[in-house]
Every structure is written in C-alpha cells, then in structure tokens.
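The instructor's notes for this session suggest beginning with a concrete chain rather than abstract definitions. Hand out the sequence below and ask the class to guess, before any prediction is shown, which regions might be ordered.
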Amino acid sequence: MSKAVEPQLLPLVRYQDLRFPDDHVFTLASGKALKGLVIRYECYGKLNAEKSNAILVIHALTASHHAAGKYEATEKRAGWWDTLIGPGKAFDTNKYFVICSNNLGGCNGSTGPNSIDPATGIPYGMNFPEICFADMTNAQVLLMEALGIKKFHSIAGGSMGGMIALLWSVMYPKKVENVLGIACTSAQSAQSIAFSEVARQAIMSDPQWHEGKYFEKNLSGPLKGLAIARMLAHITYLSQEAMKYKFGRKLSDRKALNPSDSPFEKNFEVERYLHYQGDRFKDHFDANSYLYMTKALNYFNLKDGFESLSQAFGQSSVRYLVLQYSSDWIYPKEMGLELVQAMVKANREVSFFEIESKAGHDAFLLEWQKTGNIISAFLRGAGYALKTEGIDVVSKKQGDEEKRQDSLSSKRGMQRRDFEFINSFISQKEKARVLDLGCGEGSLLVYLRSEKKVYAYGVEQQSFLASKGLRKGLSIVQGSINECLPLYREKSFDLVVLSQTVQQIVDPDKVIEQMLRIGKSIVVSFYNYAFYLNRLQFLLKGKKPRNDAFPDTWHESKDIHVMTIADFEEFLKHQKLRILNRIFLKGNWKSIAKFSPNLFAGSAIYHIKREENEDSK
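After discussion, reveal the predicted structure:
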C-alpha cells in the first residue's frame, strides 16, 4: 500500500470580495433584482494551467466562506472544514484548488439582509428580496466565471451545502464532473420545516426584532430570540445517544440541587451547553439572515419542475457520492437512499456510504477521519491526471504504487478461473452494465472493466472494502445486499453477479428473485459442501471441514446456509429458471470437474435467466 501523505497546515489565509458595480443587475428566481452584488470567498491551493483542478466547497446553514486555515497564527479556531482541506488532507491542496464562498443571503460578506441597499443607503433588513438555492447557485456561477473556470472538478458540501451541490448538477450538469452530497436530502421533511418555523418565531417574537429594522434603529437586534433559535437547532444536530453520552442527567458543578436555587436555574449540564451555544451564536450571526436562509432551506425541493426526482438527474453525466451518518435523524439513511435510487434510475454513476457515528447530524463536521477517507477514495477514483505546473499532482512513487495495486487486483482475478468464465458470459458487442453483489474491494469488477470495458457497479456491506473499490473508480453502494437490491429498476443491468456470497446472505431465494428482476441474466457461484474432500473430513473426523474454501471454525463462519450443487439444481428446477451455462471446478478453482460434479467439484458457477415464457409475462 502507498504511504499516506502527512497532513500539513495551510499557510495563513485571507478572504477576497468579488464586487459588481452598483448598476449591475443580478436577477433572482422570483423576478426581483439585486444591484451591486458582493460575493466573499476564500481559495486554498493553486489553480493549474488547464483550470481543471478546481473544487467548490459549499457551506451549511450558518457557516461561512472561511472553510479552512486561519487569518492569524494566534487564532484559536481554524475554518469549519479545516480537518478536510489542506495539504495531504481529503481535499488535498497539493492537488486541488479549493474555493468556498459565503452564500448569497448570508451575513459574512456576501450580499444579504445586513448589507447596504444601494437604493437607500441603509441595510436591507426585511426589504431584502426572497431568495432560494437557485439564486445562491447562480451567484456561485458568477464567481466561477470571474475566476476563469469552465468546469469544476468537484462540488462538495454538507447539510444545506450538500443540497446546493446536488442542485448544481441539475441546473448546470455540464459545469461539474463530480458531486459530493454529504448529510443532505432532496427536500426537507415536515418535521424539519416545523423546527425551522419555531426558530423563526423565536426571533420575530423578540421585542428587539422591530420588524427586522433593528439596524435602522441602531439596535443590537433580537439576540435572545436568535439564541433560542440556535438552541433549538442545536438539539436537532445531536443524536439522543450523543446527548446521553455527553450530558446524561449530570448536574452542573454540584452533586444535588440546592434548595435555595430558583427552580429555573441552569442546573443540568445539557441546559448550560445549549445556553453556551446560543450565546456564542448570537454574537456572530445576523437574525434576518437566519430568517431568509431557513426559509430558502424549507422551500428547497430538488424535483421542482420535474415529474420525478430521477428525471431531475436525467440530463446529468455527473459522478455522485452520497454520504450519510447512522445517527443523523434530520436527514437519515432513507433520505440518502432515495437520492441513490433516483440517480440509479437515471443511469447515473453513484456511490453511497453510511458512516457509523453517534454524533448525529454534526457528524459531517466531527467524523472527519472517516469522512475524509471516503472523500479521498472518491476523488482518487475520479481518475483525473491533474497537474500543477506541469507535474502530476500524485507523486511518481505514489502513482506507481497505486498502479501496482490495481495491477495485482487484476492479476488475482486472472488467476481465478471463475473470473475468466464470468467474463466469457458478457457480450462484446457493447459496453455491458455489470452489478457485483458482495463485491469486496472490486477485484472482479476491475478485471471485467479491464477485459470488456464494462460499466462496473458494486454492492458491499463492509465499508473498508467498499472504499477500496471506490478508490478504483467503481460505483459502490455500501450496505447489505437485501437492503440495496430494491434500489435498482427492472432489467437495468446486463449481468448481476453473486460470487461466493449466496451461502452468507439472508433469504437467498428472495435475493436471486431480485437479481432476476434487475438483470437480463445473472451469475451465482458458490462452494460445494458435498465436495468429496469435505465428505471425507466429516467421515473421518466428524467435524466441520476446514480448508481453503472453508477456513473458519464453526462459530466464526459467515456461512448460514449449507448447500450443494444438487441442492441448487433442485432449486433452479423448482423456480423454472433456465441455465445458460454451468461450470464445475475442482477444489483448486482451476481445473474443470467433468464427472459427478456434486461429488468431485469444489465449486460451481451458474449463468441463469428466466425461462422465455416467464420473460414474456
């Protein structure tokens, strides 16, 4: 394996402003206009000569353009995604030119409600026009054009930023190659909209709000209401498990309640924490911006203007990564899989990962190591030969090692006759779409891609194996086979493969039924428990066989189904399935077993489809 590059600190950073003249008109989706638009942004790394290595990072609801690094060495806090942006990090600034702008409507330099209205000379306040995510995207397009970038290598974001990243691929599919939607959704749930409304009411009910004219009256604004809005939001960012772990029912600085205390003192640790978060937030965010941004978030629906979500992705050739977190109850796994299903239906290349975490929605900020590993694998899999000043951005030593690993993977496939036979089942007339269930690190798919130039897709439950496949440029959905198969539409693959996995899955009959639904034909291969050497071990030792095919002890074994060639043949007959090819291999997986396969074959490969009369039903 190649040695990881040691992450380094970014040099001190500075923001920049893209300013348009006061007479420049920026037309919003509502038809209203803004003049004198300002977009504040930061850049990290260097744009290459071809301007092909630019990555746009989009911030979440209350973050800003300051995504990484520090303005001064003495600062305590770096940018909000500093753990992922920088030399040797996931968004490696030795390779990529990373840009982050303050979203339109924000309060950190870009035009928003607290900006001066050129027409009046005072802050917009609630006279600021209604904005939506499309407006934020169009503002970023202006920045893109100003920097001379014609196409982004990637666009990435977490939470609200992930939604805008997805919108980019729908609005401007030819302006981006890869999109990373992290901890996000295609549209908010009614519950999330409800939380936002309560937060807005907390702000607007504060006597200091003054209908949004607090700047005009030279007042500090609805700080109490804004703090309460943040407290409410922060509850949704954490999981119940994280709350229990961090606070439980712990009291603050004492072992019991003091009878002399007011009954409404902040005695619980969780209460003090929420007040701390609220007080901290009110000092750096504008209340009116919060109103506008949450409303834009609530109104966002990626399928607006389309008959379905899949149609929204239909014009795109973008390669997607959808990344969710197990304890995120605002945007749970189901929402991520809904995106994946729509992308798959639209024949897009999409990979999906769920990261195990107790941190809740905030995991996209806190689980930086796990998140960074998957982002790095995805970007590596993009397969671009990026150059900085004419030199490959991947060092020669690192690049040679990665090529060697891919070559080894392919050679391992060539040494296994089952790979060879599966390859023979694929027509050479056109690029076939192949789905490998339980694909591991993708060795079979890499082999088939090398031999037949197939479109390679995989499903793999183990994250560390799936990320290896992702690194090789494969489209991998990380999850259980039973859970993932319903994502795919009928006859969407030329071949669906279940290689050496059928004995380890729940309800294999239902899995094979689903495979036949989504595949024009399928391959099932497995070890034969009735192989004569296995029978001998049972006869002589009276114990479960242990050999290359079955290396584990009975209590370590992943196999939950004991099956033989005779069992499988009986199953196929009962299901009225047609056998296109069947190949029986001896125990060494190389030589063909020609006689009495149920006794002398160590493994079997079946190429199957439905009977013709079943196809026509």
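Then share the key points. Residues 384-399, 406-415 have pLDDT under 50 and may be disordered. The CA atoms of residues 11 and 69 lie 7 Å apart.
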